[in-house]
Amino acid sequence: MGHCFLQAGIDDFVILESRPHPAERSGAGLGLWPHSFRVLDQLGMLDDFKKISTPMSRLVHLNAKGSVISDHNAFDVVAEK
Q1: How many structural domains does the chain have?
Q2: How far apart are CA 21 and CA 76, in angstroms?
Q3: What is the pLDDT of residues 5-17, one digit of tens each?
């Protein structure tokens, strides 16, 4: 949020966080769709993001026991468009 404010020319702000650490390790991942890449590009952050990210090529859904429900290359379709 702070980066967005600075990019918009707003330099007098305070960001409050309710958790003791804003980015706790949870073992989770973050997936971004094409519209998110447009926002990162507008903020001037896309090139840096690409350097630290790994493109996703498969989408796998698992049930509660860990068995595969579906496994397909859905992201190939997104990449083509």
Answers
A1: 1
A2: 36
A3: 888 899 999 988 8
